[in-house]
Amino acid sequence: MTVSYTLKVANSHFGGFSKLLFRWKGSIYKLLYKEFIVFVVLYTVLSLVYRCLLSAEQKRLYSKVAQYCNRSTDLIPISFVLGFYVTLIVNRWWAQYTSIPLPDQLMCVISSNVHGKDERGRILRRTLVRYANLSAVLILRSVSTRVLKRFPTMDHVVEAGFMTQDERKKFESLHSDFNKYWVPCVWFTNLAAQARREGRVRDDVALRLLMDVSGRGACGHRDTAAGPASPIPAPSAQELNLYRAKCSMLFHYDWISIPLVYTQVVTIAVYSFFAFCLIGRQFLEPLEPGQEGELDMYVPLSTLLQFFFYAGWLKVAEQIINPFGEDDDDFETNKLIDRNLQVSLLSVDDMYQNLPPSVKDKYWNESAAQPPYTVATAAETLKPSFLGSTFDMRMCEEPEQSQPAEALPSSPRVHTPLLTRFLAAASPAVSIKNLGRGGRAHAHLRRPRADSGSPSPRSNRPEDPEAVAAIEEEDTEDEESQASEPLMPGGPLKAPQLSGLSEGHKKEPPQIQVKAPSSESLSADGQAALEL
User: Of 55, 186, 280, 449, which is least packed with CB atoms within 10 Å of its CB?
Assistant: First the structure.
């Protein structure tokens, strides 16, 4: 029987877990006391042999061996190996529990979809849920020792009412070298199809159920080779398939164990560690007559606690590696079988179309329903409801921070040092400086202004003040650099001025005299282009 102590730890109080230390059933004391006694006896025997039977020379030799064994314990990674192994075992233990098939969802689907208050309808519903429970019993007989002891033969299964004599003959006539726990699931699908033909199922969900179930794998995933999925998935198909998939997972968990080599490595690591401790943790006499020795306590308290922790950790993994046995904390599979059969038959038989009258509820005329509290829970009404972690932020302490702010288009944005470095190290081909030069060199590619008679579709788009300020700064630097370098008459054009020429002119650059135009001779468009 599973040891449950959930109520004892419902509330945290002083010494809450300390009360659990005095329990015997399911405790670490019951699990480990035999190994602990063996370790204490072996340690005591070695200690007596060292103290009473060995000569001085033998004690000196034993001391050297003990020191070597004590140093060797640090070389065994027992915490890492054992901790990882126990974590794997605990995850597997919980996964096995969640794989136990429960008929709760399936019985609700059967009760709502298979109709008929007559004897035939009742037989169909009870037979369908009985087939589901029979499949669970057959798989649990294969993995659980408790269930196998309860139903050692198929005669016991028939006597318990999970199977009739005719069904047993049909079951035994099917020859297969593998486990036949899935046979009742196939009977379930065929009986559901028969109920559809008889009109007990009033829509096409059952037919799609058969197609869907036949095209799914062992783990509940659809096999793409079986054809396209049904456009209207059947809830009963999905529930039966999940039920069958859980039975299959139990079978595979029982078949595929944790690799034996891993269990052997962990066991050898723990046993060898404490074998070294038996020799190396003895209280030794000093090797030299005048040398000061360690404190002789006779009882190695720290070593015994270490054995209790590490060996107990290994025993925990040993107990839950197969939770379908007969240990104190193993799953109560027989109780689950009794519960599943009782509630499933009750839901599809006594509860079929047996509904209480539908009336107005207590809060019919109330907009906000508030169930009453007892005196013991009245203090909970004083606590405000949780509305979010930022709901209680005080923004009224600084009213100016809550005022709306308008964007200032003329104010330049301050760049961070990292972004400034990035802009300074940008490629020359795409930098703002070369972009401005390219605009002056390619005057014929410049976008026409809005007042030139042909407005651009993007002329009404607001300009980026940051980009305009950067371009103006670059143009100012270019003008200053050009003013500091006088133009030579008849000198060749510079590289930025040659960018707009064709390939043929680049081969033989002509000698063109360039004269800097004055601001008075430029037109309005020219001055605007220069400013841009």
Answer: 55
What mean pLDDT do residues 357-367 have?
A: 91
Q: Determine the Cα angle at 198 with ends 194 and 204, to 5°.
A: 75
* 353 token code pair: 């179309």
Strands, DSSP E only, in 438-495? none
User: Exposed/middle/buried for 532, CB within 10 Å: 0-12, 13-18, 19+?
Assistant: middle
Using one digit for the tens of pLDDT, what is the confidence trace for 410-460? 655 555 555 555 455 544 444 444 444 444 444 444 444 444 444 444 444
- Beta carbons within 10 angstroms of residue 520's beta carbon: 6
- Same-domain pairing of 79 and 108: no
Residues 275 and 316 in one domain: yes
Q: Say if residue 91 is in the same domain as residue 43.
A: yes
Indicate the residue type of 114: V
Output the CA–CA distances (angstroms, integers) from residue 30 to 27, 38, 122, 458, 494, in the order listed. 6, 14, 50, 85, 96
For residues 212 and 226, is the Cβ–Cβ distance under 8 A?
no
Which residue range is the domain that position 173 belongs to? 104-213+237-255
At 407, list the tokens: 């964007």
Radius of gyration of the chain from its Cα atoms, rounded to whole angstroms: 43
Measured between alpha carbons, how far is 42 from 315 in angstroms, rounded to an integer?
20
Does residue 328 contact residue 3 with C-beta atoms inside 8 Å? yes
Q: Which helix (H) or strand (E) holds 301?
A: helix 301-320
DSSP character string of 27-92: -HHHHHHHHHHHHHHHHHHHHHIIIII--HHHHHHHHHHHHHHHHHGGGS-HHHHHHHHHHHHHHH
Q: Distance from CA of residue 132 to its chain's centroid?
A: 31
Both tokens of 193, joined, read 């199809």
Does the predicted model carry a pTM greater than 0.90?
A: no
| CA dist., res. 317 & res. 263, Å (int) | 10
In three-state secondary structure terms, 222 is strand
